[in-house]
Design a protein that fits this description.
- Helix 8 runs parallel beside helix 10, helix 11 runs parallel beside helix 13 and helix 23 packs parallel to helix 25.
- The chain is 73% helix and 0% strand.
- The radius of gyration is 32 Å and the shape is flat.
- The protein has 458 residues and is mainly alpha-helical.
């Protein structure tokens, strides 16, 4: 008996040394990382250049959202230091600040600043962003009734339907900004242009078609639904099709719901079907919800889609979904993967007694060890109290369950005392070692002292 006790004490001591080594402690600062000089500390990094100092102060005001102050300061840079290299970018940022302030006079001044930049500084760093900003400003003016601005926006939007060879991301930004401006001005005028873009099938226009799908989703009408469905059926890009399914979920209508149900049940592309399931959760309409429950419970549903349907049920808190998942679990004891998916989905739905129900599953000896251990983990995820976990530990004699409980208790704020008690007094040396290991992951002075006491043999 003395030999056994010595061996037991040695094993626990080794576990304590390992845990103490791994225990969390403050990370020492070994060196200072060199960072680019921030605007706020510009006075430490720059020469005494008054134009540069004023420009940086203006940028700081812009970053803080003080657009009036920023516009004035950028204007001062331009007027006081006309030969400074920062003037080119100051013109752009002045225009941006004026655009954010709004008002017809400010918008016209903003366009004037951009025109000056374009004519005097064609190679400025910000010149690539100037044209999209000008379109945005003209869109705002057109919305206020400026016919000339409206004409410029419409012309730009019409040309955006083309996808010229050699076009890059900046060109796409320009075309996208043109459509945004047109939609802001007159959504009904934008739809024919969006239709033209969505009819394209070439690879270079895929990015632009994605933008068009989003913009179309902001214009709610029967035509919107029909266009979205055409994209879903016929667009050659899977990314564009999936975006269309997602945005269709933002349309709460029976027609849109029927379309999503059709996609979720008949589409060949599993990813597209999963997108349709998610879109139906956004709609929260009765038939869509019923279909998700049906797909989750149907053994004939492709496994990947079925798991996704089970997951989506857990993301929507309702007694009906909770009951459906529990009933499904009782039918899936022969399929551990599906059973575990159901348990985890329930853990994501707080309330309805799911935490307690998951613990009951853990105590059910007719389930496999893997399922029972997973049920304990899920109960922890569901917010089961530390006192419930402690009571279960004291009540069960199942070692697999106890090991899992120690792990889950390590993540509970009010179970540390119990873990310390297990580490000190549990009759099972393996449970003591498990408790010591997980205690070693905590940044708790009591734990550190416990580990030191065990090592000293106290």
């Amino acid at each position: 008996m003395t030999i056994y006790r010595n061996l037991m004490r040695s094993a626990v001591t080794v576990a304590a040394i390992i845990a103490l080594t791994a225990a969390k402690r403050p990370t020492p600062v070994s060196h200072i990382v060199s960072e680019p000089c921030p605007i706020a500390l510009a006075f430490l990094c720059q020469d005494d250049d008054p134009a540069d100092a004023l420009y940086r102060s203006a940028r700081e005001a812009l970053n803080d959202g003080d657009y009036k102050k920023a516009a004035k300061m950028f204007g001062d840079v331009i007027s006081k230091y006309p030969k400074s290299p920062v003037v080119a970018d100051a013109l752009y940022y002045k225009a941006f600040a004026l655009y954010k302030i709004g008002g017809e006079s400010n918008l016209r001044d903003a366009l004037s600043a951009l025109e000056t930049e374009k004519s005097k500084y064609p190679k400025a760093n910000t010149i690539g962003d100037a044209n999209p900003l000008a379109l945005r400003i003209r869109g705002a003016l057109a919305k206020a009734g400026d016919s000339d601005a409206a004409e410029r926006v419409s012309s730009a939007a019409q040309s955006s339907a083309n996808c010229p060879k050699g076009g890059g991301e900046k060109d796409d930004d320009m075309r996208s900004e043109a459509m945004n401006a047109l939609l802001q001005m007159d959504s009904y005028s934008a739809v024919p242009i969006l239709k033209e873009i969505l009819s394209k099938r070439d690879g270079c226009s895929a990015w632009l078609r994605k933008k068009a799908v989003f913009m179309l989703s902001q214009h709610r009408s029967n035509e919107t639904e029909n266009l979205m469905m055409d994209v879903i059926k016929n667009d050659p890009s899977s990314d564009v099709r999936e975006d269309a399914v997602f945005w269709l979920g933002q349309v709460r209508s029976e027609k849109a719901e029927s379309m999503l149900i059709d996609i979720a049940t008949t589409a060949r592309d599993i990813d597209l079907r999963k997108k349709a399931l998610f879109a139906m959760t956004q709609q929260r309409m009765p038939r869509g919800q019923a279909l998700i429950r049906k797909l989750a419970g149907d053994n004939g549903t492709p496994e990947e889609l079925r798991k996704d349907a089970i997951w989506q049920l857990g993301q929507q808190r309702s007694q009906e979904n909770s009951d459906a998942l529990r009933a499904l679990f009782m039918k899936t004891k022969g399929d551990e993967e599906i059973a575990k998916s159901v348990l985890f989905s329930l853990s994501q739905m707080r309330g309805y007694g799911n935490d307690r129900w998951l613990l009951d599953v853990a105590l059910d000896r007719s389930a496999s060890d893997d399922v029972r251990k997973h049920a304990i983990f899920c109960a922890g995820q569901a917010g089961i109290s530390g006192s419930e976990l402690i009571a279960l530990y004291d009540k069960t004699s199942d070692r697999a369950v106890k090991e899992q409980l120690i792990w889950v208790m390590s993540d509970s704020r009010n179970a540390t005392d119990k873990l310390i008690d297990i580490a000190k007094n549990d009759k099972d040396i393996e449970m003591r070692k498990k408790a010591i290991f997980w205690l070693g992951q905590k940044n708790d002075p009591r734990v550190r002292q416990l580990l030191i006491d065990i090592i000293k043999g106290e």
